[in-house]
Design a protein that fits this description.
Chorismate Mutase, subunit A, two-stranded antiparallel sheet, binds prephenic acid, single chain, 251 residues
């Protein structure tokens, strides 16, 4: 856990951008497919959407096979997860970096709501092609990628705190959200991230054609949508995770 530095975490955040852009591109292959988000029957509960049922069921299987042994992974429906049968998962000791009382900081609910209500209709076309399983499987990949990125804020906060606890302690004690937010903010880094993800969306998502007549470049996902996603949601939620984590750091 001593090997983790702010630079290594920023490196990880940068690599995760590739996966986030690719997963958005993959989901954008299908239209909105809105029936997948309407209600269907859900065992043991009154009702839930087809998408929610798919995510719950997949998380159950992934939990059994050890996905959440890695503290970087955060499920959307932690209440229903089964434990793994003894001996199934090869043993591995993940470094324990997080402060136990702050590790459970979680914005999964917000990510879920923002993704389905705000984001999805923006980067998919209108329409229904019946590929509901494929669409929600791609949604889950996007959701997991966004959640992992945003919840990495817990590790970023831990590393920042360890490097200068004296800077943070007074604001943690007085629960001063404004100062804590200022302390974790680097506007320069944020501007660079937003610019870089736009470029990645341009490079990874441009439609490739051999036709040299039309020189109008088109993209599978609008690069401006991707940079706005980061500016409006991904970075602010990461900072919210950082601040909420710090608030529990002395508990
Ligand atoms: O790199 C950091 O220091 C972070 O805290 C991560 C992050 C981000 O979400 O990309 C968030 C807050 C900072 O203002 C800069 C960047």
């Amino acid at each position: 856990s001593d090997n983790i530095t702010l630079d290594s975490l920023r490196d990880s955040l940068e690599k995760q951008e590739d996966f986030i852009v690719f997963s958005l591109i993959e989901r954008a292959r299908y239209p909105l497919d809105s029936p997948a988000y309407g209600h269907s029957s859900c065992p043991g509960r009154q009702s839930c959407s087809f998408a929610e049922l798919f995510v719950r069921t997949t998380e159950e299987i992934e939990a059994k096979f050890g996905r959440y042994q890695n503290p970087e992974e955060v499920p959307f429906f932690s209440n229903y997860l089964p434990s793994s049968p003894p001996g199934l998962i090869p043993s591995f000791k993940f470094p324990q970096v997080l402060y136990p009382k702050a590790a459970s900081v979680n914005v999964s609910r917000t990510i879920w709501e923002v993704y389905f209500n705000d984001l999805l209709p923006q980067f998919t076309t209108k329409g229904d092609d019946g590929n509901y399983q494929q669409a929600v499987a791609s949604d889950l990949i996007c959701l997991q990628a966004l959640s992992k990125r945003i919840h990495l804020g817990r590790f970023v906060a831990e590393v920042k705190y360890r490097s200068s606890p004296q800077d943070y302690n007074p604001s943690i004690r007085s629960k001063d959200l404004k100062t804590l937010t200022e302390l974790v903010t680097s506007e320069q880094v944020e501007a660079m991230v937003v610019k870089r993800v736009k470029k990645k969306a341009e490079v990874f998502g441009q439609d490739v054609t051999l036709d040299s007549n039309g020189n109008q470049t088109t993209y599978k996902v609008d690069p401006l949508f991707v940079s706005n996603l980061y500016k409006k949601w991904v970075i602010p939620l990461t900072k919210q995770v950082e601040v909420n984590y710090l608030l529990r750091r002395l508990g």
